[in-house]
Amino acid sequence: MRAIRDALMLGVALALSVGHVRDVGAQDTTFMRALTLEQDGKYREAADAYRSALRGQEVVAALLGLERSYAAMGMTDSILPVLDSLVAIRPREGGIRSVQLRALQMLGRDQALRDAFENWARASPSDPGPYREYTRMLIQAGRVASADSLLRRARTTLGSDRDLAYETAQLRAAAGEWAASSEAWRVALRNMPYLQQAAVYALVRAPEGARADIRRVLAAAPVEPGARRTLAGLEVGWGDPRRGWEALRALPRSDSTVAAWSEFATRSEDAGAWLVARDAWQAVDRVQPTGSIALRASRAALNGGDPASALALAERAAGADSAASARGAVPLMVRALGSLGRPAEAARLAESHGAHLPPALREELARHVAWAWVRAGNLERARSALAAIPGASEGEAAGWMALYDGDLKTARTAMRRSGETTRDAVAALALIMRTKSDTGPRLGEAFLALARGDTIAAATAFADAERELPDAGAILLATAARLHAARADDPRAEPLWRSVAQRYEGTPEAAEADLEWARVLRRRGDVPGAIARLEHLILSYPTSALVPQARRELELARNRIPGTT
Amino acid sequence: MPTSTICPASRWVAATLGALLLVVPSALGAQHVLVPMDDAQTNHLKAYGLMYNALKEGHSGEWLLNYRGGAFILPDLPDLRRRAALEGIRTEPIGGGVLGAIRAEMADANMEPVPLEKAPTIAVYATPGSQPWDDAVTLALEYAGISYDRIWDEEVIRGDLSKYDWLHLHHEDFTGQLNKFHLAYQGAPWFQEQFERNREMARRLGFAHAPALKKGVAEQIRQFVERGGFLFAMCGATETLALAVASHQVDIAGPFADGTPVSEDADARMDWGRAFAFRDARIERSPYVNAMSSIDGHQVNVPGRRQPLGTFTLFSFSAKFDPVPSMLVQNHRGVLADFYGVTTSFMRSTLKPGVTVLAFEEGAPWVKYVHGAYGQGTYTFLGGHDPEDPQHAIGSPPTDLSLFPNSPGYRLILNNVLFPAAKKKPLKT
Asked: Residues B338, B21: contact at Cβ < 8 Å?
């Protein structure tokens, strides 16, 4: 019996449901027809159809369509009588009221807009909606003071501005009250986490002096995901991803935290902050360990110059969940071992896995092994490793080997022939093309030291090479100076820049030398000296691409423009 | 379309300049450089500095009104060429033949060469400790490399204005009410510091309170212009200076500034005859409304009254008959984007008859830029705070003029710096 009764009830329910669908379907037809007409650009017909659809249940959707259609025809004022009728019937319907305010704003009818807002506020005295909509309009119109007054009134009327936190946040940011804006964003993000990007966009414009307050507010206890994610986004925007990660790492472990960390890691990779990306990926890996995440962390570590952690992470990936991860780990491990000065281990690893890998990957491993031997200073073994690669004796790799030997003639030929040219190869070729000499042993030593990661030895060798290759003196000294400058070693860089600027006037490096020398002098507090160099650059090399930058730095040195804030 | 008008000061200057032209041009037979000020110029703002410093070093030059955006002529000297190259200013060497052709072209058109003879000495009235970037004029002067002295209440009351030819005021509130910023910034450290500084200065100089001190300062400035000084004011200083001068016998400051309310009959007791530029404005009596009077058309800080920004058009004057206003509007653009300030614009209804309108907004009841004679001197008022930061708000980052080397708005400011160089200055004492 019970089964029969249940079946009957189900039948009744289905019948009711079908009847409802039939009604809604009729209304949907009108609405859908209006949408189609609008999409076809038939705005007049669409407007008629939307007006018909207003009699159905989808009032707000139809009204929005009507608003769009009238706007497209430049007849926004035609919607006003429609709105008056709808407001009379549904005085508390926020969607209708919003369209009304928007229409009046678009038409520039300020008094009517104010009246409409007051009417809505009276009809819905405890609803934050009217205040929210009108405040947003005032902010958009740049009427910050008016918006501020309105929010104050909302606080009094509603007893709290908790529901208007977003508007308060925007308003405070527009007024440059960054701490107050941050407080309001923090409140807003608790209920509306999707506003995080808006918060970053609003606060990232804060001047340097205001950032400490923003950090204090967003990092304050208790740890809140919205606030922390916003702070992390801000730190990336302000050029300090490491601080961004510090803000984010404190989040409690959860799925959403993992998503936030992964997103941040990707952003850090995009920004070239590899070690920050590594830390973020490692954090993800600790919560949700997978081989692919470990591989990304390893790659980030390698790119960031930390081969030790890259090796550890790649080893973990190699023993992880999938064959794909294991396969992806081998090249990273070989590279990491090479960078750590363990070429023999790199070679053994490549050899043990090589047989199972496709030819392209095998060649890649051979190249990594060759570079590992180069880094260890063993060119013979490097050549042996390269010999396993078909065509390697004529390509870029052969060019590098010749260059390390000081055989500039072969290096030039091989590097020019190379089909795929790396950035490093272009830089090397640009240098060796500046001399007519076919040999340069000291220059070879310089490049080899560079490949081994010994920057100081490389810089010294480049500077020494000036004696054997005087026709490339300017670029050799400039290269040495750049290496010292990259290590922020002004005492070593300065005499080299000075030599280029004074002994090699008119060379392509001379303008750069003037600029860099000026920067060193300015850092040292010798402003007159810096000004003299910048003036020399501008007057001596007026067509140099560096002149606009030199002029700007001249203004800064003379304190005629504000410094970077 | 606007038509040209001739202001009395211009007639006097035209006659003086005409006489000068007869004796100066012999020096122009040698090689010269033309500093174009049309779109060919790479750094308009620095060009003013080049001209000013050349004058300061004793060289003479010419301002070719309406020729190539208001170009300059300078002697072709190695040091000037070097400076132009350093600053990125475009110059064009010209020989006597080319210069003759330029003069011939100018003679038959609405153009006029104006000899520039002496760099004016410049004072900027600015709060001690303020950065050059707090004020559009100091920004422009610093960027152009034009030297100036900073002065404040003490120097003005002491009578130091007589040392200068040209005085600039910016957003100072001469009614002593600190632009009524107490409404929004009462708790802000910078506001409290300014409030205390004004109070302390008033006490030190023997005034009862800040409004009284500022009235005293305004009176000194009025006398400076009356005796032949050049006054250039922007932003809130334009409006509040006029109010301070006109209110010498009535209290127009709110209780937060001097402890007493605004006089009931303040409007009736204003002495507009003494004021620069304005008349018959209504005082904003409410301490809760962030406006000073009905002079400003835009009322940027008053909810419900604030007007949107538009564009303003520079008036076209006869260069031959109205050289002074012509100098003040030399530009490579005729229509400029408007920008807000504590005082953004001036209602036409509050302008005195005889005030020369230099720039206006088409169809609006306000104007942007005015000039007039007062005693033996002149004043020029430009509404707004910073031409390259139209929505400027407290806390906004400073404007970096190296990013706006061709700013037409800033050119208006620098026209004012240079125009006194064209005039043989009357004695101010």
From this structure: no
